[in-house]
Amino acid sequence: MRIGAHVSIAGSIELSIKRAMAIGCDTFQIFTRNPRSWTSKDLTEEVIVKFRNSVSESNLWPIYAHMPYLPNIASPDTEMWKKSILHLKKELERCDTLKIPYIITHLGSPKGSKKEKGISNIIKALNKVFKNYKGKCVILLENTAGKDGSLGSSIKDICNIISRIKKQEKIGFCLDTCHAFASGYDLRKSEIITEILNGIDECIGLNKLLSIHSNDSKFDLGSGRDRHEHIGLGCIGEIGFKALLREKKLRKVPFICETPVDERRDDKGNLEYLRQLLKKI
């Protein structure tokens, strides 16, 4: 089972690989650029070569990129929608240049318009992005906690969106445990996990589940609040993560921690905690 974390690209993107190895990652996730800006520095040939070579020399795989926060492919505003599509295309190109196979994105918000309109915009946007796309990177849609009108708190809705994308080989699913719990899926119960996996399998196939964001939740079941906590120290707790790790269908899906770093525990500590739980099962 491959376990990793989201790591920093501070200084230069290729430094993320050393950081991932230093904390004991088998796999890892990055932003390829500043996630809170529309602008980005071009990747130089030197940086590209260093990143690719460092990856090939490591045993880290797969690598995930996460989409910046500003684009909104569900937006009812035409200019924002078009701008978001453009930046998603650009991010796919960056991932292909770096040979990153997956990029994870939130679905966005319809900003006061109807949910159905937002979903329609997402489907149109993704089909537009893929229409002339010749690269290899796959987009993974991530479920959300459901706050601020964001779409994607329903796993069923995400699966239905994925099923309506024309280039099926270019689309998949990332399940965030904190978000799922916050939106009402009680992951402390093995029957709920089974229900989730059966629903995914029936709609799009479990082969589309390509990443687990392994995060505990600071707030209780159904809170709608996206606040990550250290594994086992939140409301999902050790019982919930044992239930997830006990599910053999998830053993081949990489687990990526996006947990806090504070006086209680760091990224390495969360990876070690997950591995210890796995040994107890």
CATH superfamily: Divalent-metal-dependent TIM barrel enzymes
> In total, how many domains does the architecture comprise?
1
What is the averaged pLDDT score? 97
CATH topology, what is it called? TIM Barrel
Q: Helix segment count?
A: 9
Main beta-sheet strand count, sense and barrel state: 8 strands, parallel, barrel
Class by SSE composition: alpha/beta
**Whole-angstrom Rg:** 18 Å
Molecular structure report:
There is one protein chain. With 281 residues, the chain is of the alpha/beta class. 40% of the residues lie in helices and 14% in strands. The protein has one domain (3-280): Divalent-metal-dependent TIM barrel enzymes (TIM Barrel, Alpha-Beta Barrel), CATH 3.20.20. β1 (3-6), α1 and β2 (27-30) form a beta-alpha-beta unit. The radius of gyration is 18 Å and the shape is globular. The mean pLDDT is 97.
Could you provide a short overview of the structure?
By secondary structure, the protein is an alpha/beta fold. It has a single domain (3-280), classed as Divalent-metal-dependent TIM barrel enzymes (TIM Barrel, Alpha-Beta Barrel). It has helices at residues 15-22, 45-57, 78-98, 115-131, 155-163, 177-182, 190-203, 237-246, 267-280; strands at residues 3-6, 27-30, 63-66, 102-105, 138-142, 171-176, 209-213, 216-217, 228-229, 255-257.
